[in-house]
Amino acid sequence: MNEDNISTQLRDIKPLLEIPDSSYYIYWGLILFATLLLLGILFFIAKKLWDNRQLNLAKGYLEALKKIDWKDPKKSAYNATYYARLLATDERSKKMFSQLEPMLEQYKYKKEVSEVDTETKNKLNLYVQVADERV
């Protein structure tokens, strides 16, 4: 009697149910999300460092313009043109540079040049002030 009771109980046992498992997809989804988040953070850090580097370069160019020694007019004109061109990034400074450049060119391409006139020095000083406000 005991065996009949056990075998009837065993017949009532149902097979195991299949439970849908999406943990594999959730795992890879989280890894992909974390990777994208990390790449985004690295991108913004790199962008911030690059912008800061550009600003530091502009400050260096500005300091070089301020330190120009006018004892050698030819070399000074070349240096002023070089650094002023590098600083001319916005519309206002580009316009000022286009006015300053012909004034400096008269000191660059001759073998013997005279002293730099005060008008050119004043124009360069105005350009330096405008660039200093921007940087």
Structure description:
The protein is an all-alpha fold and 135 residues long. Helices cover 75% and strands 0% of the residues. The protein has five helices and no strands. The chain has helices at 2-11, 23-66, 73-87, 91-105, 118-134. Helix 2 (23-66) runs antiparallel to helix 5 and helix 4 (91-105) packs antiparallel against helix 5. The longest helix is centred in the N-terminal third of the chain and has 44 residues, at 23-66. The radius of gyration is 37 Å and the shape is rod-shaped. The mean pLDDT is 87.
Bulk shape: rod-shaped
Number of strands: 0
Give start-end ranges of low-pLDDT stretches. Answer: none
Structural class: mainly alpha
Secondary-structure element series: HHHHH
Q: How helical, in percent, are the residues? A: over 70%
List the helices and strands and how they pair.
Elements lengths: L1 H10 L11 H44 L6 H15 L3 H15 L12 H17 L1
Helix pairs in contact: 2-3, 2-5, 3-4, 4-5
Give the structure's gist in a few sentences.
The protein has 5 helices and no strands.
What are the main properties of this structure?
mainly alpha
